[in-house]
Amino acid sequence: MTDEPARWTKASVYPDMWIDPKDDPRDSEDPGPEGELATLQDYLSSYRMTLRMKCEGLDAEQLARRSVPPSTMSLLGLIRHLAEVERDWRNWFTDGDPLPKLYGARDADFHGAAAEQAVVDASYADLEREQATTDAVLAEYPDLGERVGPDNIAIRELLVHRIEEYARHCGHADLLRECVDGRVGQ
């Protein structure tokens, strides 16, 4: 007997995927986006959706389940971490005082990922709010070469960094989800 979940998938055409391509909301028959900004936004949207898909159908305990000790990483911790990171990116636009942390001290986003439905609901709400707020701030800067904030960072670099952050954590989410219930990555 083992605690390791059996690998499973909803896919019927490609057993190494967790959803058939025709059912994947991230894929479409439409041609790709036009232009650099639209392409960057499309990639960010896709990774955000991937993270949500990786968390679908799990209860509070499963979302808060940590990977392997001593790691504090969990799917719920990733949701909270990305909310915190979205907020922090807005600090790159201003010379003023940084926005306060959502969850307190360093790594509180992961440490506070408790297996309680209220924490799950609040974490999703935090992520949606912080994403929308950061998106709204970035919408004020259509020139990807414009430099902002004390570090004189280009808007393009900030957008690429956001994509990289979500992409990296979607990789973590693949492994975390497989540990929870055997659902394979895609």
From TrEMBL:
Please give the InterPro entries that the UniProt record associates with this protein: DinB/YfiT-like (IPR034660), MST-like (IPR007061)
- Bias type Basic and acidic residues, positions: 19-29
Please name the SUPFAM superfamilies in this protein's record. DinB/YfiT-like putative metalloenzymes
Under Pfam families, the record lists:
MST
Report residue spans for region: Disordered.
16-36
Please give the name of this protein. DinB family protein
The organism encoding this protein is: Streptomyces mooreae
